[in-house]
Specification:
- By secondary structure, this protein is an alpha/beta fold.
- Helices cover 33% and strands 22% of the residues.
- The protein has a 7-stranded mixed sheet, with helices on both faces.
- Helix 4 links the parallel strand 6 and strand 7.
């Protein structure tokens, strides 16, 4: 997809605040510090539209970005960050769950893992839950530029086997640094948004 316009619309803390415009939504989920914001910025050809940080847990609300006036990218808070209170962690979890369960325009979830770490138990738990509630999912392994190609291929094969024990899902490799995997991810987003 050629990105002509990409704008931050709003941050929401409750489902009632979802933008009123009736556009398909593609959500981006993953652990804190997995590279969600960098991936979104890369996909939208922007450097600072989605705020990146070396400190995990910066995304605390659900952020909506309107792309070409035709689709929303929805950045969900990262999970698994330890340096927050139990109460705050619970509120993030409920916000994410409520959004994924209740948004009528959500077409699918881009679930992001770190290619150097692979799917953690929290990632697999999220994939299992998304499959259970029948939300379409594409898994993307980011930071592919951090690994030698031969090692990356071996790891991706292992990750695919691990994920397929739960459900047969697309597993893409991505790098926000060299834009590797960008076109394939746009292809998957196009398939999801047309559902």
């Amino acid at each position: 997809m050629k990105v002509i316009s990409a704008d931050f619309i709003k941050s929401i803390a409750t489902i009632e605040q979802i933008p009123a415009k009736n556009l398909p939504e593609i959500a981006f989920a993953g652990r804190s510090n997995v590279g969600k914001s960098s991936l979104i910025n890369c996909m939208l050809n922007r450097k600072k539209l989605a705020m990146t940080s070396s400190t995990p847990g910066k995304t605390r609300l659900i952020n909506f970005y309107e792309v070409n006036g035709t689709i929303y990218f929805v950045d969900l808070p990262g999970y698994g960050y330890a340096r927050i209170s139990q109460q705050e962690r619970h509120s993030w979890k409920k916000l994410i769950e409520n959004y994924i369960l209740q948004s009528i325009n959500l077409k699918g979830v881009i679930h992001i893992i770190d290619s150097r770490i692979g799917p953690t138990h929290l990632d697999l738990e999220m994939i299992r839950w998304l499959n259970f509630i029948e939300r379409p999912v594409v898994v993307v392994a980011t930071k592919a530029d951090k690994l030698p190609r031969s090692k990356l291929q071996t790891l991706m094969h292992q990750y695919q086997k691990t994920i397929q024990e739960i459900v047969d899902l697309p597993l893409l490799t991505f790098s926000a640094v060299n834009k590797y995997g960008k076109q394939e991810l746009w292809h998957q987003i196009g398939k999801l948004s047309s559902l």
